[in-house]
Amino acid sequence: MIENSQPKPETIQPSASHAKKITLVTKPRKILRSVLAGLTIVTIYSLATLNNSNLQLSEAFKSLGANLNAMFLHPSVGQDSWALLLRALATSVSLAMLTTLLGALIAFFIAVGAARNLAPNWLATSIKAVMAFVRAIPTILWVLIYSVVMGLGASAAVVGLTFHSVAYLVKAYSESIEETSQDTIEALKASGVGFWPIVFQAILPSIVPALLSWTFIRFEINFANAVAVGAAAGADDIGYYLFMAGSFYFNFHEVGLIVYLLLAVAIVLELVSMKLRGHYLKHN
Amino acid sequence: MKTSFPSPQSFFRQRRLRLSVVLIILIGIYVLSMTIVNFQTWTSIVKIPAGIIWLFHNFIPTERSISYLGPILYQLWRTLLVSISSTIIASLFSLVFAILGAQTTTPHPVLRIVIRFGASLLRNIPVVAWAMILLFSFKQSDFTGFLALFFMTLGYLTRAFTETIEDLDAEKLQALQAVGANYFQCVFCGVLPEAASTLTSWVLYMIENNLRDATLVGLLTGTGVGFLFDFYFKSFRYDAAGLIVLLIAILVIVLELTSTMIRRAIA
């Protein structure tokens, strides 16, 4: 009798704790799913509790259809004149240009103080915190707040819009400045170049495309804001006429015309920005 | 071949010349806009410090303004809900439009042009105009604000989503097609999982943006926290208005920080 005294051949059994299950559901995926689920629940709750007091939705949509028809298919100048509306449109564009230029100029100097590779850390941090606070308050509230101090009209609109532009552009500019390599700055400092020459001769030329594209984005935002300011704070621009036509005279033909004018400006702005970026990208 | 470089002198002269031309044009634009808007730069700049001091005197919430906290928090909550729900509903529609309109996944090129044009139209009508258009049909209800934000967001997100999908690697789609996946399999198993985190971060950005715009829409349509601000502001209860401004700022900053955190976690 041959006894099988041989020990059992050892096989390496993977222990359960070592086995890694390969799954598609990684941690980022789980977080993504829970965020989306949370947002969906909030949406359902908010739609269920939406305050639609005494509102017949089907009738409301029917009247919306009629209004859209009046607006877009039969636009007219209404009780204002072409000259008045075009002048108001020019005011809006000018308001946007003025606040963007003013904002860009102020923001650049503040951004130099807010860039971590140029300014001391405490200064950069505190400037960034203040700017984050200014940015968090909607533009229209800044304009309304300043309209108490300066009286309703152009000055309050310009100052309020500029305030928000500065806060926005400081963030964008300082981040662009921080992308300049530290080596360049160190090398220039070591060879004895002063602070402002470094800023204007080394940093500024290398970030012009970024600055330009941020400034132009802000210009588009400022144009939309200028219209809003006219409507809500009574600056004498196209937004004011839009507001009057829409909620006082209920003249939808005029609302339609003004919307067409705004669309025309928006299209021109988009074309200009495409050209501008193409031009600068080619040069650098 | 020999390329000729300008001498340093002429290079710097040219650069200075170009710089001065640009500066003169900018100053010209500034002066022209100043006259059109009728804005006096100096007198206004001089008033800014006084304005800030006045702000600190009157807009600081006092003990009295605490009594307004209840309605303010309620309206702020409503505004937040409207901005979230309008973004989410709009993102569902934009996702469909983006899939139909992106170059890599479009079923038909004509559809692509129609969707691009429509999105551009929605995006370029300012939110004020939307508020005015909708106010007449939907009266003073949350629904007006919801729809105004919805149309704006639809325009923005459709473009953002389309670009995100077009940025994806086209070869993966081709590989899926090569092994015989049909259109829906390509979209749901190839495109969406790949793009999900970028799309979500666009949605989060739009929620932040909409919260800011919701204040403006509320101001114009008489709903939400914007209306409450207008009401306190026009009845000279500046401390209560200041409390609203402070709470909006806090909410926006908290939202920004949360979405940055989420973006980092899902990237």
TrEMBL record, chain A:
Superkingdom classification of source: Bacteria
Domain (ABC transmembrane type-1): residue spans on this chain: 89-273
Biological-process GO terms, alphabetical: transmembrane transport
Annotated membrane topology: Multi-pass membrane protein
Localisation: Cell membrane
Lineage of source species: Bacteria, Bacillati, Bacillota, Bacilli, Lactobacillales
Family named by the database record: Belongs to the binding-protein-dependent transport system permease family.
GO CC annotation terms, alphabetical: plasma membrane
Gene3D superfamilies: MetI-like
Transmembrane segments: 31-48, 95-119, 140-163, 195-216, 223-243, 255-272
Keyword set, alphabetical order: Cell membrane, Membrane, Transmembrane, Transmembrane helix, Transport
Listed InterPro entries: MetI-like, MetI-like_sf
Protein name: Phosphonate ABC transporter permease
Record SUPFAM superfamilies: MetI-like
UniProtKB/TrEMBL annotation, chain B:
Gene Ontology cellular component list: plasma membrane
InterPro entries: MetI-like, MetI-like_sf, PhnE/PtxC
GO MF: ABC-type phosphonate transporter activity
Chief location bin: membrane
Transmembrane parts of this sequence: 17-36, 80-101, 113-136, 143-162, 182-207, 214-234, 240-262
Subcellular location, record wording: Cell membrane
Keywords linked to the UniProt accession: Cell membrane, Membrane, Transmembrane, Transmembrane helix, Transport
Membrane topology of the entry: Multi-pass membrane protein
PROSITE patterns, per the entry: ABC_TM1
Domain (ABC transmembrane type-1) ranges: 76-259
Record has Flavoprotein as a keyword: no
Family: Belongs to the binding-protein-dependent transport system permease family.
NCBIfam families, per the entry: PhnE
Name by which UniProt lists this protein: Phosphonates ABC superfamily ATP binding cassette transporter, permease
Protein source organism: Lactiplantibacillus xiangfangensis
Source organism phylogeny: Bacteria, Bacillati, Bacillota, Bacilli, Lactobacillales
